[in-house]
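Sorry to interrupt, but I need a hand with the structure work. It will help me judge whether the discrete encoding reads sensibly. Write everything out right here, beneath this request:
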Amino acid sequence: MADLLPGLVVAAHGRHCLVESADGQRRICHPRGKKNAVVVGDRVQWQATGDEGSIERVDTRRNLFYRQDELRTKSFAANLDQVLVLVAADPEFSESQLTRALIAAQAEGIAVLIVLNKSDLQPAFDRAWARLEPYRRMGCTVLPLCLTASDGGAHGLDVLQQHLANRNTLVLGPSGVGKSTLVNRLVPEARAQTGEISRALNSGKHTTTSTTWYWVDAERRTALIDSPGFQEFGLNHIEPMQLAHLMPDLNATLGHCRFYNCTHLHEPGCAVVAHVQSGEPDQAEDDPLAISENRYRLYSELFAELSDKRRY
């Protein structure tokens, strides 16, 4: 067998993928064997077969960010340094979807950056910023952004770029929040690259259905991974009893419940329930372990959802 070459998967569509070699050249490759599935961000070992190549081995992943529902598993990308969850002041974001994305990232040990776009919209932005207060309190980095300022600029982009430097970042978010605008601001040639990838992989709908890796800098140290928008984010791969451990505000109180197998739903002497806010706005300042009512409601709903699915 010829010597294997290291490569990076920068796009994938069906059984075809685009692999970038160490010198920056890209070529279509095909995974060998059905079990040798690859995702964007995978480091692989490949060999040339004419103008194309075959992937012989996928290197061990540091992590894999994915979602799972009853029907299938959807993998976004591997070997990430962080996930950027982009939401907007308008349309109003779903806190359930935000929470699900954060739980999936936490389960893989991936850092999360929350960015709130459309800071020029008032009073919608102030309302959305207030909704994100529990996330700031539990240690999440939350940044304001305006990609379409009236002066033609992009307010907050410089600060965001500092958080992206020298990292591989997956950009995640629902349709309509400015995800494509952000990618095109940071990678001006993104549209041209996406067109080339679509033609190479013969996938005309590549721009909306697949995940794509872009280098932000010439040195190839900072990467943005653009992902398709989504409406649902299943967490079937998470066990119900894991949930509290994967939600930092709930996790901070664990170990102090009366019962070791507490579900934090109805048991007496539950430390989690004891810290759920009563709705008083000043309680969070008085209680560093305070859990917002809305976050606790999301936990309860997710616990019920995941428990129901395991009965069948």
Observations:
- Residues 203-208 have pLDDT under 50 and may be disordered.
